């Protein structure tokens, strides 16, 4: 059981996932600071609130929800621009360097039966 667990942990997928998680948390902290200290005060000026957390509609603290949405969108945009776009470009370059050879599809069942019929007919005529 321990050997199986050790093999599972040593797999590249688990290690890659752990690294991605740590980097994601670090980016989240950076983007959160940018959103909290730059973007939220600008939006707070638009709504005449000190920050988004102070913006309320009636009894509902809608400002915190707006801030969380902005924070999520900012993180998603940064992750897309920093990770997804470069990785897609890299994959495109790799695909251009190593074109995939088109695999020949195996014949269908009907084609196989037709070939067998023709071979049997040829054997009987000989």
From TrEMBL:
Subcellular location(s) of the protein: Cell membrane; Membrane
Entry annotated with the keyword Cell membrane: yes
UniProt cross-references to SUPFAM superfamilies, sorted A to Z: Gated mechanosensitive channel (SSF81330)
Pfam (any one): MscL
InterPro entries: MS_channel, MSC/AndL, MscL_channel
Superkingdom, taxonomy of origin: Bacteria
Chain segments annotated as transmembrane: 12-35, 55-83
Keyword Transport attached: yes
Principal location class: membrane
Entry keywords, A to Z: Cell membrane, Ion channel, Ion transport, Membrane, Transmembrane, Transmembrane helix, Transport
Topological category with respect to the lipid bilayer: Multi-pass membrane protein
Quaternary state and interactors: Homopentamer.
Function: Channel that opens in response to stretch forces in the membrane lipid bilayer. May participate in the regulation of osmotic pressure changes within the cell.
Family label: Belongs to the MscL family.
Name of this chain's protein: Large-conductance mechanosensitive channel
Source organism per UniProt: Microbacterium panaciterrae
């Amino acid at each position: 059981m321990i050997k199986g667990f050790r093999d599972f942990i040593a797999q590249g997928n688990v290690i890659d996932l752990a690294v991605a998680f740590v980097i994601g948390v670090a980016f989240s902290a950076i983007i959160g600071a940018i959103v909290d200290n730059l973007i939220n005060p600008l939006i707070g000026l638009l709504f005449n609130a000190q920050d988004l957390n102070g913006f309320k509609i009636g009894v509902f603290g809608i400002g915190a929800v707006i801030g969380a949405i902005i924070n999520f969108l900012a993180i998603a945009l940064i992750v897309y621009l920093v990770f997804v776009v470069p990785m897609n470009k890299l994959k495109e370059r790799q695909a251009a360097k190593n074109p995939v050879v088109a695999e020949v599809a195996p014949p269908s069942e009907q084609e196989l039966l037709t070939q067998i019929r023709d071979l049997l007919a040829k054997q009987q005529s000989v």
